[in-house]
Amino acid sequence: MNFNQITPHVITTAPKTINELTGTDPSETVALTCINLPEALIIVDCGADTEKAKKFRYIMEEHFNKEISHLLLTHAHWDHSDALNVFQDVSVVISKKGATKIKADIKVAESFTIGSKRNEVFFQVSEGHSPDSAFVLYPSDKVLITGDNLLSCYAQVFSNGKIVLDLYRHWESLDVKHIIPGHGFVVDKDYLMNVRAYFEDLISVLKKLESLGLTINQVLKHPDLPEYCYKDHALWEEGGRRHTGWVNSGIKYWYRHV
User: Fold this and answer.
1) Quick check: 134 and 149 in contact, CB under 8 A?
2) Of 36, 107, 148, 256, which residue is most buried, by most CB within 10 angstroms?
3) How do beta strands 68-72 and 111-114 pair?
4) What is the reported pLDDT for 196?
5) Which residues contact 50 (CB under 8 A, 6 or more apart)?
6) Statement to judge: residues 106 and 87 lie in one domain
7) Which of 138, 165, 188 is the last residue of a domain?
8) Is the pLDDT at 129 greater than 90, yes or no?
9) Could you tell me the CA-to-CA distances from 245 to 57, 103, 129 in Å, in that order?
10) Rounded Cα distance, 183 and 62, in Å
């Protein structure tokens, strides 16, 4: 397991570049993150691999010489929460809608703050990718952890696209430097802005094509479609071994909703 220390207080399994990713399946690319607060350690997402979660927990507690107090779950999808049993002795925080999907002693919150004034960690439910989606912000280190509302090794997958685009605009207004997506490698605000701009361009083109009465198959082949902003990333089209065509899935989603 590789670790990426992006600030003195934040370590994540999300690598620095796409070339450092190991595996293509969602369960292999999900990011586990540790935030070192003066009082204790905070873990964001535990993944699906119990052995990986155990190793991550052990190494983080050894490295920072303190125990974990909270596990924050960005949502309850299996690839982010199936290793929950590794953290049975800590406080688990998740949205109310997400709490119905897991069995654990949990703290339900739509917003939650941990830490002292200068080192606060904010958990905020946002919806978007899923009704229970949340993000985590650590302002003192300018770190944003997005959950699956932003991905950097697959194309974006929408449940509520309007919420996601509004969320991108909100995140762009924040003073953040390091962005840890739900899957993939650590990115910056430029990456976020490029993804948002792509979908805004796509929506604009799709509105014109919809007015022409084109079928979705005609739309998918249309030369006016903007090129995907990170089309050269190795995993974007594949979306993992069991998930294909995520770029086209996004186009189909927006064509239904323009």
Assistant:
1) no
2) 148
3) unpaired
4) 96
5) 82, 83, 85, 86
6) yes
7) 188
8) yes
9) 34, 33, 17
10) 25
How many Å apart are CA 18 and CA 30, to the nearest integer?
13
Which ranges constitute the DSSP H helices of the chain?
A: 26-29, 50-64, 78-81, 96-99, 161-172, 189-211, 216-220, 246-257
Give the Cα separation of 229 and 222 in Å (integer).
17
Inter-CA distances, 157 with 130, 183, 246, Å: 10, 12, 7
Q: What gap in Å lies between CA 154 and CA 247, rounded to an integer?
A: 8
Separation between Cα atoms, residue 31 and residue 33, nearest integer Å? 6
Same domain as 241, residue 176: no
pLDDT tens-digit readout, 57-73: 999 999 999 999 999 99
Residue entry with tokens 């800590």: 90
| Whole-angstrom distance, CA of residue 120 vs CA of residue 116 | 6
Asked which of 166, 188, 210 is the last residue of a domain, the reply is 188
Task: Specify whether the CB–CB gap between 135 and 74 falls below 8 A.
Answer: yes
The gap between the terminal CA atoms of the chain, to the nearest Å, is 42
114 neighbors 120 (Cβ within 8 angstroms):
yes
Q: Which amino acid is at 162?
A: K
